[in-house]
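Lab notebook, bench 4. Still working through the backlog of constructs that have no structural model yet. Next entry is a single chain of 93 residues. Request: give me the structure tokens for it.
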Amino acid sequence: MGGSRRPSTKGTPSHTDEARSLLTTEDISRWLGISGRTICYWAAAGRLPAVKIGRQWHFHRTAIEEWIRQREPGHDPRADKTGPSKRKKADRF
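Model written out:
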């Protein structure tokens, strides 16, 4: 008479590599050695790549790794494929 079967969760976002690569504010805080409050402020201001899910900020590991790489000493922003920096105009003044 068959009991109820649970629907398969295979392939749902919570089981993909991308979902597992989402980091919390606490994860980023420990990784970068910056307070959670600062992480949230930077995320809200657009200074740190993040996505808000409900009331919580989440961060893609690859986006944070790229963000860090772009801030390493000796990094040439002109080598990036994102085009000209928006800061160049402001730097002229």
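Notes after review: Strands lie at 22-24, 51-53, 56-60. The radius of gyration is 19 Å. Flag for follow-up if needed.
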